[in-house]
Sequence to fold (525 residues):
Amino acid sequence: MVEKAEVILGENEQYVINMGPQHPSTHGVLRFELSLKGEIVDKVVPHCGYIHRGIEKMCEANTYQQIIHLTDRMDYLSAHPNNEAVSLLVEKALGIEVPERVKVIRTMLSELGRLGSHQLWWAAFGMDLGALTTFFYGLRDREKILDIFEESFGSRLLHSYICPGGLMNDIHPNFKTRVKELIPYLRKKLPEYDQLLTGNVIFTERSKNIGIMTKEDAISYGITGPSGRGSGFACDVRKAEPYSAYDRVDFKEILMTEGDTFARYQVRILEMYESIKILEQLVDQIPDGDYTVKMKPIIKLPEGEYYQRVETARGELGVYAVSTGEKFPDRMRFRTPNFSNLFIIDKLARGHKIADLVAISGSLDLVIPDIDR
Amino acid sequence: MDQTTLQQTIAKLAPNAVFNTNPQFVEAVVPANELHQVAKALKDNSETQFDFLCNQTGIDQKGELKVVYHLRSTSLNHACVLKASASNREDAILDTVSDIWAAAEFFEREIFDLLGIRFTNHPDMRRLFLEDDFQGFPLRKDFVDNVNIIEF
Fold:
């Protein structure tokens, strides 16, 4: 006898489906459990942990120089600020002042990384919404930045270049000329981004008034970076607590008040111009000198607790270290921007269609290994 | 507000708090049973206005399970650290602050997952990263993992 087929619906006639963990628009292994009423999203439950590697636990068995290489693997699209956060923490704890040359180069690398990261975000965001051309444009320009990285330190994605005390090795002699070539190139190419997407009616229809986040929500959920600034939350660490060479450069903190997907999009587009401005100011001012201060092969931080925050391409990265005076930290905690940015998605996506959920999660610019660590 | 006046203001809101020396932040250790009340006062008071919970984490220090809150005020631009210890390791319990800062809901799920501190009144107290049937809490110092040995 054939058993009667049973249709299982969730509570209140909701249909529950999984989006991910292998879904192109989640950009990694993240699973959303969606409760749907027809095509309308009623509830989003994010399930994380598919790429949980236990970086915080691994840090407890590694020296501070080794930890640098673990931090690359969190937000791999802007790896420099991750390295910089740990380096600044160690330097602060030991009271080391790094040479001016190091400060300027670190700032330039962070901004180059931010440009590259925003370009990849723009490329993938357009693709999420069905505009495949953006992917080619974005990667075409990002390639130029990765070439600069490759020339100086051999790697294109996981750099591990900024280390406690300074830099792993000196920059390539071509670095300065390459950056000087890059600035006019990007100034010419970035308006193309606007032509292709920003003024596009299909795009604006799909992003304006979608997923509105209020400033109060942004603060309460701890949404930082461009996603928070799209809601008017002034959370730029580069302005609030300048580190490296950010105190001597002139740039604007981009703030929008609309809080919708389009505002978050515009913040990132305008931030790219600000990054170019910072690079322009610093490229001629790289001082001569050492690229590192001499560090002991094994760093032991004095007993105590330290907290250091930096601005990555996605928001505020906080590193909290508890040291007992040993060569390994007693506890290392990374407050990663994407972890906090993810969980507001339930609030933003409710009442919208599934296709809008893709737009919203794209506009939050999530990098999954940064959430899971 | 400079550190000494901030400390005095916090001391008024949390009379039973003990202040640790910390060169970076004002650091207050509050008794576990007063945690929720102090946290709410710190957010609502017009002189402190700690509306941004930028980091919440747990530590296993000297046999004690502690939760550390890094608070920041977006309007007044000052910061402080709040700490509370769970009474025992076997049944570690603290009050949730997820009704005060929404960000805490998921920080607390992570702390429960990795350190095994349970938060009362939390809306959804489940593991976040590890499987639901995972045994033990990896960030505790007495955790032994026979599969992935990382100690030398």
Observations:
- Chain B touches chain A through 35 residues (CB under 8 Å).
